[in-house]
# Entry
Amino acid sequence: MVAVWLLFTLMQFVAEPLFLDRWLRARAKVRPETTFGLIERLHWILLALSLITLIGAALGSHGVLIIG
# Structure
Protein backbone atom coordinates (compact mmCIF):
# COMPACT_ATOMS: atom_id res chain seq x y z
CA MET A 1 0.00 0.00 0.00
CA VAL A 2 2.85 2.35 0.80
CA ALA A 3 4.37 1.65 -2.62
CA VAL A 4 1.14 2.70 -4.36
CA TRP A 5 0.97 5.87 -2.26
CA LEU A 6 4.60 6.60 -3.06
CA LEU A 7 3.95 6.13 -6.77
CA PHE A 8 0.96 8.50 -6.68
CA THR A 9 2.95 11.06 -4.67
CA LEU A 10 5.93 10.92 -7.01
CA MET A 11 3.72 11.31 -10.07
CA GLN A 12 1.70 14.19 -8.61
CA PHE A 13 4.37 16.21 -6.83
CA VAL A 14 7.66 15.32 -8.54
CA ALA A 15 7.26 14.04 -12.10
CA GLU A 16 4.37 16.25 -13.16
CA PRO A 17 5.83 19.61 -12.09
CA LEU A 18 9.34 18.79 -13.29
CA PHE A 19 8.80 17.39 -16.76
CA LEU A 20 5.59 15.43 -17.29
CA ASP A 21 3.28 18.42 -17.74
CA ARG A 22 5.44 20.04 -20.46
CA TRP A 23 6.02 16.72 -22.23
CA LEU A 24 2.32 15.85 -22.31
CA ARG A 25 1.34 19.34 -23.53
CA ALA A 26 3.89 19.20 -26.35
CA ARG A 27 2.81 15.70 -27.30
CA ALA A 28 -0.88 16.64 -27.19
CA LYS A 29 -0.31 19.46 -29.70
CA VAL A 30 1.10 16.99 -32.22
CA ARG A 31 -0.94 13.85 -31.46
CA PRO A 32 -3.90 14.63 -29.18
CA GLU A 33 -5.71 11.30 -29.65
CA THR A 34 -2.74 9.10 -28.84
CA THR A 35 -1.76 11.31 -25.91
CA PHE A 36 -5.25 11.00 -24.45
CA GLY A 37 -5.07 7.23 -24.96
CA LEU A 38 -1.73 7.09 -23.15
CA ILE A 39 -3.04 9.10 -20.21
CA GLU A 40 -6.17 6.95 -20.06
CA ARG A 41 -4.14 3.71 -20.04
CA LEU A 42 -1.87 5.03 -17.29
CA HIS A 43 -4.89 5.98 -15.18
CA TRP A 44 -6.40 2.51 -15.65
CA ILE A 45 -3.10 0.91 -14.61
CA LEU A 46 -2.94 3.05 -11.46
CA LEU A 47 -6.57 2.28 -10.71
CA ALA A 48 -5.93 -1.46 -11.09
CA LEU A 49 -2.90 -1.26 -8.77
CA SER A 50 -4.97 0.60 -6.20
CA LEU A 51 -7.79 -1.92 -6.36
CA ILE A 52 -5.39 -4.85 -6.06
CA THR A 53 -3.84 -3.17 -3.02
CA LEU A 54 -7.24 -2.48 -1.50
CA ILE A 55 -8.44 -6.05 -2.00
CA GLY A 56 -5.16 -7.43 -0.62
CA ALA A 57 -5.38 -5.21 2.45
CA ALA A 58 -8.99 -6.19 3.09
CA LEU A 59 -8.25 -9.89 2.71
CA GLY A 60 -5.12 -9.62 4.83
CA SER A 61 -6.95 -7.85 7.62
CA HIS A 62 -9.40 -10.75 7.73
CA GLY A 63 -6.62 -13.33 7.98
CA VAL A 64 -6.70 -14.62 4.40
CA LEU A 65 -3.32 -15.73 3.08
CA ILE A 66 -3.10 -15.70 -0.72
CA ILE A 67 0.43 -17.12 -0.79
CA GLY A 68 1.47 -19.80 1.63
In short: The helical segments are 2-30, 32-61. The first helix runs from residue 2 to 30. The two ends are 20 Å apart (CA to CA).
